[in-house]
Design goal:
The strands form two sheets. The protein has a seven-stranded mixed β-sheet, sandwiched between helices. A three-stranded antiparallel β-sheet has the order 3-2-5, covered by helices on one side. Helix 3 crosses helix 4, helix 5 packs across helix 6 and helix 9 runs antiparallel to helix 10. Among the domains are: 146 residues, Rossmann fold (3-Layer(aba) Sandwich); 87 residues. The chain is an alpha/beta fold.
Length: 342
């Protein structure tokens, strides 16, 4: 079962845009990728972080509807657009095709040539300035584009340029929820800075998977996926935090310091419990030696010996149970503190 922790600063009264409810996903061979994950993503920009292998891309694909949960459900408020890590255009694909504006541009060309077909006007809708908007989006993402760019083949572009075009396409869609998976991987410094600047004005809600510190400084919330423990005790943890990555790190540092103090305290308690148990064992051994000496001298009657032996056995058993219980509690508290510190 997963564990979800929520920072107080992440609490919001606004309805979440994406709700993931106890979602699990397994590969065909039964290997778990996500296990009982629950999270509510707020409006605005959320950075989805975690080590490789924690299921971040799988979670995005589940939200996008590309995958179906093995268990649980996903609810998205409105339309959703998903941009994967690798952007490749099909053979012969133009920039306009990638942007999804080719049909509108063709309809505009027919209207300019004298067409009065209602279908052409329906295709255009309110997008009479589609070329200008497309070029503006490309330029806003760091591409030195002009109208001629729209007819270029995607195969001519570098990896960074192709990613810039794909990002512009997601902005033109203006979906209610946009999912971005490592969008800065192929971007140069100029394009990366442009994307970070655009993120502040991105329409709708954005969930972005990234290890890019600069990008994560521009988000409103952080969601961390992590696996905790090993073997049968391995569980998936979701941490939601309202704030950017620096604020998240600062909060984590406070939590880490508190966990380490708790661990040191637990270590000390285990040490005390073991020391007291050893001391009691030594005292009991001393009492046993004294009793044997008295018996050897004949100073104690058989009735007294039986009475003292019975009382000593009861006292020893009671104290042993008490010390064992204390040591058990101390070791359990130490294990919990160690898990928190880890």
């Amino acid at each position: 079962m997963s564990h979800t922790s929520v920072s107080p600063s992440s609490v919001t009264r606004a309805a979440p845009t994406v709700v993931v409810d106890r979602v699990s996903f397994e590969l065909p061979d039964g290997q778990p990728v996500l296990s009982d994950v629950s999270a509510a993503f707020p409006a605005g920009r959320t950075g989805l972080i975690g080590d490789n292998g924690t299921g971040k891309t799988t979670l995005l694909r589940l939200i996008a509807g590309e995958l179906t949960p093995t268990e649980g459900s996903v609810h998205v408020a409105g339309s959703c657009s998903y941009l994967p890590q690798d952007v490749t255009g099909a053979a012969g694909t133009s920039v306009a095709d990638q942007l999804g504006i080719t049909a509108i541009r063709q309809a505009l060309a027919r209207i300019e040539a004298g067409s009065v077909d209602v279908h052409d006007y329906d295709l255009v809708g309110d997008d009479w300035d589609v070329d200008a908007r497309a070029v503006a989006e490309l330029a806003g993402l760091g591409l030195r584009a002009d109208v001629g760019w729209l007819d270029r083949s995607m195969s001519e572009l570098s990896g960074g340029e192709a990613m810039g075009v794909a990002l512009a396409a997601t902005r033109l869609v203006r979906a209610d929820v946009t999912l971005l998976d490592e969008p800065t991987n192929n971007l140069d410094a100029h394009a990366r800075a442009a994307l970070i600047g655009q993120l502040a004005h991105w329409p709708g809600a954005v969930i972005v998977v990234s290890h890019d510190r600069g990008l994560l400084e521009a988000v409103d919330a952080i969601c961390e996926l992590s696996w905790v423990g090993a073997g049968a005790s391995r569980t998936q943890q979701v941490t939601m935090f309202g704030g950017n990555f620096s604020q998240f790190e600062a909060q984590r540092e406070v939590q880490r310091a508190a966990a380490e103090r708790e661990l040191r305290s637990a270590d000390a308690e285990v040490h005390r419990a073991r020391a007291q148990m050893r001391a009691e064992q030594q005292r009991q051994q001393q009492r046993d030696r004294s009793a044997r000496r008295e018996n050897a001298r004949g100073n104690v009657s058989k009735g007294e010996r039986d009475f003292l032996a019975n009382r000593a056995e009861k006292n020893t058993g009671g104290k042993k149970l008490m010390h064992n219980a204390r040591l058990h509690d101390a070791e359990a508290a130490r294990a919990a503190a160690d898990a928190a510190a880890r």
